[in-house]
Amino acid sequence: MTIDVKVYGPGCKRCDTTAQMVADAAAKLGAEVSVEKVTDYAAIAMAGVVSTPGISINGKLVHAGGLPDDAALEGWLSDAR
């Protein structure tokens, strides 16, 4: 099963880094992920993200504001399997 991950943000360096962190954590876990960057401000607001970057996994917002913790990211992806 592919895990659907969305990274919300305006396309800044932190957002790019967050997307790469998701890909790296998925590779470490051997999980298949689909990572989509969402840069549309209306879509970001509708997702409930008030501080970027934000991350949703399979439609559930799990993080907003700053870079995520590696261990937490791996936990979120493991839980989504």
TrEMBL record:
Disulfide bonds join 12-15. The active site is at residues 12, 15. Gene3D superfamilies: Glutaredoxin. Pfam families: Thioredoxin_3. SUPFAM superfamilies: Thioredoxin-like (SSF52833). Keywords: Disulfide bond, Redox-active center. Residues 4-77 form the Thioredoxin-like fold domain. PANTHER family: THIOREDOXIN. This is Thioredoxin family protein. It comes from Marimonas arenosa. The lineage of its organism: Bacteria, Pseudomonadati, Pseudomonadota, Alphaproteobacteria, Rhodobacterales.
